[in-house]
Amino acid sequence: MREREKAPITIEEGFKDMAKDSGSTATGAAAFKLGPLPGVPREVQASFVLWLIAVAAGVFETALAIIEALSGDLGLDTTGVIVGVGIRLIIFAAAIYVASRMRLGKNWARFVLAIGLGVIGTLSIVIGPVSWLAEGHSVGEFFADAGTMTLLFASSRAAHLLAVLAALVLMFLPAANNYFRRA
Questions:
Q1: How many CA atoms lie within 13 A of 173 on its CB side?
Q2: C-beta of residue 175 within 8 angstroms of C-beta of residue 42
Q3: For the segment 116-155, what is each residue's pLDDT rounded down to a tens digit?
Q4: Residue 7: is its pLDDT beyond 60?
Q5: What ranges do the domains of the chain cover?
Q6: For a Cys-Cys bond, which of 76, 118, 122, 146 suits 168, CB 3.0-4.6 Å?
């Protein structure tokens, strides 16, 4: 039985308690602040932003795929579209969460991003175009036959891939390595 009732704590106080209990100097909520976090190297900050850009590109690509599917051009059923979107939303949410942990100095998050999105995700982005080119098609042929939706999708994919590759490099630069060692 409690001797006296305590006043309710604020959300901010609760996050501070969680940070203290977990041994962290920053809170989970701090990882989502738009500005730079104190003590986080620019390289890690930039990597975090690039991961968010990659997710945004993935969301845009998903929206384009939904538009194409709903237009009936792809011959997909509604269930397939819903399942595909659901899987993508789970991946996007997980990517944002893991990137936020990386920004807070969690080394495990850096390796999850590197392997999960950096390797597996990159392969999923490039396997289609590389296979198409390997079949004997050319880049010129692609541009000659591409419609607006295809060009939008390809542009988004290119931005997506560049963001992932740049985020990967930034996560493993010397300043970032030192940050993850200290955290």
A1: 14
A2: yes
A3: 999 999 999 999 999 999 999 999 999 999 999 999 999 9
A4: no
A5: 43-182
A6: 118
